Amino acid sequence: MSEKTHEAVVLDQHPGLRHHVAGLPEFIAWRDTLPMVEIDEETFYVVGGDQLKDHDQIAVAWVNQYRPQLWEDRTWMK
Amino acid sequence: MDEMTGTPDIELYEETEEGQVALQEPPTGGRAARVSPPPWRGGNRPMEATRPVSRGEVDENGHRMVLVDGELLTVVEGDLLLDIDQKELWQEALNFRQAGLRTQLRVQQAGLGEAAINQFGIFTGTSELVGMVQDGKLVRWRPGTVLSYCVLANTFPRQEWYEEVVTNMQLATAAWENVCGVQFEYVAEHDSSTSMRPADVLFPVRYIGAGGAFIAASFFPNDLPSRRRLLIDPSYFSTTFDHVGVLRHELGHVIGCRHEHIRSGAPPICPDEDTTGTINLTDYDPQSVMHYFCGGVGSRRLEITQLDRIGAQQLYGPPLNAFEFQDA
Fold first, then answer.
1. Domain segments of chain A as ranges
2. Is this model's pTM higher than 0.80 or not?
3. Domain containing B222 — which CATH number?
């Protein structure tokens, strides 16, 4: 099994999207509503009350949920 | 999973083409449709006919019945002779096979086939929940995987909290084992480990002060091996939710269940989540063990309901204690 999450692999396949989403004010505002915890020197966001997601995972979740057109819209491509 | 070899112990479970034939009732004359035994049954098959039999009557399903050495047997699949107990098991296997195929159809109808995966490999459908789908296949642990765990005593600030979690984990794991074909194993000798990730268990149960960010948190079968852990926040010990129920819920995630309340039928006030890669295994169940207490539905007892049982069995089959396993 890869030591990368499925979401990290997906973002790797979309060069530029990770950086693009991380800078979107709407994403930042949503992310900031999520509780954060540090476990074994990794930072996680608590999604849905009991699911721990890293930054790539919440970025993909946010795109899926709120900006699915970004998967098709290539304007974020470098 | 053995991380050194990289051998995965989860499986992206997919019904085969062969199984599609079994959607139809086996024909009553001529050669019956071939129905593969479900994977949780292993390779054992009922006895094969090895001698000519005399023609008899038919049973309530139209299967031919024959008398062999004074014993009335049912003929299925063209050449299999089953006694009454074997026939019951065969029918049960067929039913589960068909249930699995209905799930497959739901997957396809939800657009989880290749057609719904866009050119970037991202699922773009709008289906909803409970089970998990990755690369168009249901996510579950590989058959035969023992979900071993320990409870790291050194992480708990109070002995009684550690002891409560040990007891409650045994009750919660037994609850899942009694409804579907999963197997947990408590490896108590690793409770004293000072490692946060003891090598010989699939996951540790740990206390962690998360400031109430969660009561407890766990993982999914397709999460990274390094993130397989069940975490207990101090709020677990004061919550008004049933304490065993909280662990039943977390173990539901461990075996591949998503939250029930993210389905379209749930009250809108219930927490929202990304529903990508999810699939309904049953009808919406407001009393599901995987449903939060929100919008006037849900239960603080977090018990495994009959619909939960059906959904879990779609992934894992009947409880292992329902079988009389035979060695090769």
1. 6-73
2. no
3. 3.40.390.10
